Amino acid sequence: MLILFLFGTIIYLAFKSNKIADQNRLWAGMAKETAHQLGTPISAILAWIEHLRLANESDPEQLEILDELSTDVDRLNLIADRFSKI
Predict the structure, then answer these.
(1) What is the H or E stretch that residue 85 is in?
(2) Rounded to the nearest 10 degrees, how much is the dihedral formed by the CA atoms of 64, 70, 73, 75?
(3) For helices 2-55 and 60-84, angle between their N-to-C axes, nearest 10 degrees
(4) Residues near 37 by Cβ (< 8 Å), separated by ≥ 6?
(5) DSSP 57
(6) Cα(65)–Cα(59) distance, rounded to whole angstroms?
(7) Most buried among 25, 30, 61, 73, using CB within 10 Å?
(8) Distance between CA 80 and CA 65 in Å, rounded?
(9) Once rounded to an integer, what is the mean pLDDT over residues 34-51?
(10) pLDDT of 85 above 90
(11) pLDDT at 48
(12) What is the per-residue pLDDT across 61-72, written as a single tens digit (0 to 9) for each?
C-alpha cells in the first residue's frame, strides 16, 4: 500500500511540475510577443520625434517638450527590451 501511495505522489508531483513549466512557457511567450508588438510603434514615435525636432530647431520650448517625449519613449523602449529578454 505504501508503494502505491509513493507512486501516486510521484505521478502527482510530476504532473504538477509539468503544469507549472507550461504556464511559465506561456508567460514567457506572451512577454516576448508583447515586446515585439511594442517595438514597431515605439520606433515610429522616435522617428516622429526626430522629424519634429528638425522642423522646430529654432523653438526652444518645442525642443524641451520633444526632449521630455524622447525620455518617456526611451523608458518604454527599455521596458520592451526587458520583456523581450524574458
Answers:
(1) none
(2) -90
(3) 160
(4) none
(5) T
(6) 10
(7) 73
(8) 23
(9) 92
(10) no
(11) 95
(12) 999 999 999 999
Residue 30 backbone phi and psi in degrees, to 5: -65, -40
CA–CA separation, 13 and 9 (whole Å):
6
CA distance 69 to 22: 39
Categorize the per-residue pLDDT at 77 as very low, low, confident or very high, splitting at 50, 70 and 90: very high
For the chain, where are the alpha helices, taking DSSP H only?
2-55, 60-84
Residue 61 C-alpha cell reads as 520650448
User: Could you tell me the three cell numbers for 8?
Assistant: 501516486
50: amino acid identity, one letter: E
CA distance readout (Å), 64 to 14, 49, 83: 58, 11, 29
Report whether 56 contacts 63 (CB < 8 A). yes
Are 54 and 6 in contact by the 8 Å Cβ rule? The answer is no
